[in-house]
């Protein structure tokens, strides 16, 4: 009989804590489209302070945060954005920057650590002398931490270099900082320093931070003024949104301090997986809360099948392909959950080896 559920599918699966629910119940609210909601104002002021930017805006999701940011920077049709070929904006956001915004993507190869080579970024910038044929480059996007690279972090030095390149060519820099707090904790660098070079950042509240809903975008006051209008256009203007922002304020207070522990648990998990016969995890590349592991050829089990067996033990995983599994740690996964997961996976792999399952 399953006695506990350990949900490792994503850091988006967290449930609001009692403190969050209490804060939501008591939240002071008003109409946020009319900019009267005091709790939304409080959250936005706090996020602007933490990120070192002039202003902030609560948005329903990270996808909308990225879309609005790209659209504000690329308001003229035919603009082009340089972004990673393995980035969330390029792969998982329905091509919204093109279909909704008329913005042309110029993907540059992401390295295994989530960076793009600076010389490749520079050579992807269009020559304005040939505008008769070329779209106009207006924006560079980075992602920190980089999800598809297993939560690898981009350093301050790298981000500053891309910022300098953007300035040199009169471009803007946007950071998809869905997990920027994870990156900040992993690097031991305050968020405001990490994003200093960026003109805008989209920060998810509902991932590592553990709030139930929402993201915040930050930038200059004029950027946010324009973003507010676009948010309404896209249907993201919500009314008594302070209910959600109250939970996010609790998340900022209570959960940022737990991210280091999540990273430690992720590392322990990767090390443990690597010791199980038939599995391989790249321990060194686990820098934050995401772990990918491979099922080695000849192991006689697919990722889907392993996921099904784990489900019987109350452990939820996300197969990434037939031989690759993604695990994401969050504040509702404990060190003992990690040990239990490792013992169940080991048992399943031993069962397969012995011809069971
Ligand atoms: C790196 C990154 N950016 C953006 C998003 C989009 O966030 P949302 O699911 O809130 O739209 C995600 C979601 O997983 C993400 O991992």
From TrEMBL:
Give the cofactors, semicolon-separated.
Answer: pyridoxal 5'-phosphate
Under Enzyme Commission nomenclature, its number is: 4.1.2.48
Q: In the UniProt record, does the keyword Lyase occur?
A: yes
Q: Which reaction does it catalyse?
A: L-allo-threonine = acetaldehyde + glycine; L-threonine = acetaldehyde + glycine
Q: Which domain of life is it from?
A: Eukaryota
Family annotation (SUPFAM superfamilies): PLP-dependent transferases
According to its UniProt record, which protein family does this protein belong to? Belongs to the threonine aldolase family.
PANTHER family according to UniProt: L-THREONINE ALDOLASE, L-THREONINE ALDOLASE-RELATED
What is the official name of this protein in its record? Answer: low-specificity L-threonine aldolase
Q: Which organism is it from?
A: Lactuca sativa (Garden lettuce)
